[in-house]
Amino acid sequence: DDEVDVPDPASAFQPDDVFGASEVIDHTAFKWRATEWRGRPWHEAVILEAHVGTFTREGTHRAMIDKLDHLVATGITALELMPLADFAGKRNWGYDGVLWYAPDSAYGRP
């Protein structure tokens, strides 16, 4: 077989990293329930830039959820997560992400 398999560049998930097949994700499956939420004025923002892979021992998005109450208690009002886009390898700062619409599979699923 001389064919080369490549992921869809607009993929929303790469379960086997950047060299594997893309997985189709149903973006309508999540039902947003906070219909009245509008955010807060940006001049009130206290932003924390957090590296998903090193923020918790588990290094996943789900593990970060357990830390949200602590962040709120310290005055953090917004999180800038990095890196989000899928990248080659296990750890990365995200500056060379290759699949911009897919979260890195090491951090969890959409």
Automatic annotation (TrEMBL):
Gene3D superfamilies reported for this sequence: Glycosidases, Immunoglobulins
InterPro entries in the cross-refs: GH, Ig-like_fold
Protein name: Malto-oligosyltrehalose trehalohydrolase
Species annotation: Tenacibaculum discolor
